[in-house]
């Protein structure tokens, strides 16, 4: 009887120890849980981008997305699409002024973290550090912009083309 009680105690102690390991990172700091947004979001949300007073929606590019089902399983979708320079060939550019600000709104969905902007020039992707200054692209022709974001469910890229005047 004492042996069974000892085994039960060991099992309970090990279960508690293993469960506690997932809550703390090295150094005893609590790990921040990734927040999920509204149930039923089956694909990446499409943001509304506003430059000046002109709102528009970018084209959805490549993405990887997983949704947890009520059964506990996950339905995953992987979409591969042409790179932004190829997508841009079939898009109309949006005329904007060089002094306008760029705002990105994901509506009721939490914005992605991280959320990065990239400019495509000569077939190469360049990270835009900090705020995108449209004045830097004034009069240079069409500017291909890629927005990239990550959520708990996955990641997505969005493409739009600007004509900065």
TrEMBL record:
Statement: the UniProt record of this protein carries the keyword Signal: yes
Signal peptide residues on this chain, from the entry's feature table: 1-19
Keywords: Signal
Protein's UniProt name: Lipoprotein
């Amino acid at each position: 009887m004492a042996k069974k009680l000892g085994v039960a105690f060991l099992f309970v102690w090990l279960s508690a120890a293993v469960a506690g390991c997932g809550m703390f990172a090295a150094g005893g700091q609590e790990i921040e849980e990734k927040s999920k947004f509204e149930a039923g979001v089956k694909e990446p949300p499409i943001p509304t981008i506003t430059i000046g007073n002109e709102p528009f929606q970018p084209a959805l590019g490549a993405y990887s997305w997983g949704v947890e089902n009520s059964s506990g399983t996950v339905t995953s979708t992987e979409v591969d699409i042409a790179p932004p320079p190829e997508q841009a060939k079939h898009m109309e550019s949006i005329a904007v002024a060089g002094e306008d600000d760029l705002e990105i709104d994901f509506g009721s969905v939490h914005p992605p973290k991280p959320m990065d902007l990239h400019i495509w020039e000569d077939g190469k992707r360049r990270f835009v550090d900090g705020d995108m200054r449209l004045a830097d692209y004034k009069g240079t022709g069409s500017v291909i912009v890629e927005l990239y974001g990550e959520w708990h469910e996955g990641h997505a890229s969005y493409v739009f083309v600007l004509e900065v005047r």
